[in-house]
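Anyone else keep sequences and structure tokens together like this?

Example one:
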Amino acid sequence: MGKRVALVLAGCGVFDGSEIHEASAALVHLSRGGAEVKIFAPNIEQRDVVNHLKGSPADETRNVLVESARLARGNIQDLAELKASEFDAVIFPGGFGVAKNLCSWAVDGKNCTVNEHVNSTLQAFHSAKKPIGLCCISPVLAAKVFPGCEVTVGQDKNVDGRFPDAETASAIAELGCKHICKNVNESHVDQANKIVTTCAFMCKAPLHEIFDGIGTMVQEVLKLA
């Protein structure tokens, strides 16, 4: 029987929601791994809406659950309904929506607050010793909620111009967590906390390398489950 995995989205689109390629990659690797997946998102308004063609703010409001339903092909539930007891693991793709809608990292950095349902979901899986997978910027959720944990967002220096957001690693360290430097096609496993992370689009890399890195994260999550 396949592992039961919850996938948590933050909207639809890299600049104000979930990163579509990351969400899709996670779903493909979960499918290949024989997992049974259910998708969730918080039923809240987005912090902002971005015109992805122009890269500028749009004067409109959107709902995170409604927008996430685009990625889920309509098969999605309110995050408030997620019960950790019904799943073997949880995975959070990245995208600015994580830093805007699931928490306030985009505005407040290490002083951010985490959405109550996101926080309770993370706490529930952690308390049950069930694995948590995070990619791109979403490892900051674990860094904020679980002081002392180990995560990666890639490198802590902008190596060859490929890691423009390397300062995120320093902010994670300031939260009392350990940042582990990894390449884009790798993931890090915090065995003690059962947290698996990979940098994905935190690195400027070809899409297939990001896809492969997310694959290692998914594989490790399924192993731990």
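And example two:
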Amino acid sequence: PASHCNSCAASRGFPRTLGQAKALDGICELDLVISLNIPFETLKDRLSARWVHPASGRVYNMDFNPPHVQGVDDLTGEPLVQREDDKPEAVAARLRKYKDAAKPVIELYKSRGILHSFSGTETNKIWPYVYTLLSSRIPPVLPDEEH
């Protein structure tokens, strides 16, 4: 989930655990939590397509940001590697662990009536709905001359 409150910035994937959610309660009172529901296979495929250039940390995704030449870094020509935790089996295990940890967090915010869930596989299709929600909850920022 991503959360919003007056004194806290929204954050991708936080809180991830019930302990983190309770700690966040001590900092601010949340009034809006967004959960993006993306199919397991979509997440697994996207994360498994990630390859890195170890020396620089440059990240490539074979689906939407591939290197010019398969398997090599665009700038150095050095080989790319797939991190152990980005391999399909490891990704599947990470996603199962995340789902188990996040379930009570989702239930907590649902019980408070502040959870808004959106489902899909593509950012450009989900974002308009998220934007509409946020626009209805967060006042627009006016240029200086209009203050």
